[in-house]
Amino acid sequence: MLSGGLRSMTVSETAHNRVELRLPAEFGSLPVVRGVAATVAMGADLTVDAIADLRLAVDEVCSQVIALARPGAQLTCAFHSTAAGIRVSAAAPSKDGRLPSADSFGWHVLRTLTDEARAWLGDGEDHPLHVEILKRNAS
Amino acid sequence: MDDDTGQGDDVGKATSAAGSVELITTDGPTVLRVTGALDLALAPKLQQLVERAVRHGDRVLVVDLTEVDFLASAGMSVLVRTHREQPGMRVVAEGRVVLRPLQITRLTDELDIYPTLDAAVAGR
Q1: Interface predicted TM-score (ipTM) of this complex, two decimals
Q2: pTM of the full predicted structure?
Q3: Name one Pfam family in it (chain B) (predicted).
């Protein structure tokens, strides 16, 4: 759709695009996360549908982390927009060391919407739960 | 089952930071009107009001998503669960914001979806 020149300009502008949020790990933080997701997606020059998909995926990533976070914990959500695509990772101290269920409907939605989705527990006494997705740019 | 079923007092409402659910009893189907974001915060409240309507013996439920501006998996899970337990559930959904998540998850094939509240109430 874009000429080669325009495409490379877009790439260079988004190559170092990184946004990080720190919010209470509560359901009430989700509207803020969705708003930032939409802004990042628009900055990455995505289609209307791709923006909506990213907003849904990011909401799901953070919902998964918040649901398993220790009460009163802080949620970190980072958006990293590169030439290859948008990587989003969220983390918070875990409530009980559980990982999201890979059989759940929410995880199914996450896999459907993204090219990569994974969850793991980090080291450290907080045992932070991490959930990360990658949405590749359409080629 | 001694719940007060007086029509006027039978309106339930629940809200979250970014949305609300209202239970409206009519002469016809019971309507659950959802507005705003049907996300992890609001989905449990929709579930509670669905259960309340079912306890009252309402067989035909209409979940009206016309004014929903975001539909998360938590909200879709409630729709699926309700549909499996209450096959008479009808969903009002129009517009990309709501239809796209339902299409991506193929729930458009499973749920009984109507474009308007009137059509859903009439069942056609």
Answers
A1: 0.86
A2: 0.87
A3: STAS
